[in-house]
Amino acid sequence: MQGSARRRPFPAAAPGSPPPAGPLYPGRHGSVKAEDTFKTSPFHLDLWFYFTLQNWVLDFGRPIAMIILPLEWFPLNKPSAGDYFHMAYNVITPFLLLKLIERSPKTLPRSMVYVSIITFVMGASIHLVGDSVNHRLIFSGYQHHLSVRENPIIRNLKPETLIDSFELLYYYDEYLGHSMWYIPFFLILFIYFTGCFTPAAGQSRMPLAALLLVGPSSLYYW
């Protein structure tokens, strides 16, 4: 027909092949988002670096901050500097775990992941409260190397039922809190690594970034 040109049809794409770049596929001009790059990377440097950094700063650095910062800034009836560090840890760590699970090469059981992270947050929060109170008891003469009932300041409490309350606090801090904190944490890591067993090109050695983080991370967990 005069005045109009016959349009040449696009060749059919092979099954499973990505759509071609062009005006019909905006945003596909060969560029890949940074998040997509991290998802397909064999080693998630950003997440593992953040894990290492927050472990040493927010967890291991808690008692150091309490020693360095003046006690007058944090009265005994208010949260201490270490408590604020612990609060930040309880927020950042589950967020990093969720981001790590998102990048798993395989689809993981979501219900188990969610329950584990909820339990982790609850256990870490229980430990936060118990640890905060126990640190304040030190200023009153409490000795951590002795059991609750053997401590002089606890033995003299009246009525004696108060001793049971302190033993309950110790149980929440040292047993229940730690169990609900660490077991779900390592369970999530185990679930993630089981999802990493997928067919892929073999590598002769670990990435350099991974080798650099092995030392500080191993030392912290040990």
TrEMBL record:
Keyword annotations from UniProtKB, A to Z: Membrane, Transmembrane, Transmembrane helix
UniProt record, GO biological process: lysosome organization
UniProt protein name: CLN6 protein
Residue ranges of the TM segments: 47-69, 84-101, 113-130, 181-202
Residue ranges, annotated region (Disordered): 1-26
Pfam family, one: CLN6
GO cellular component, one term: endoplasmic reticulum
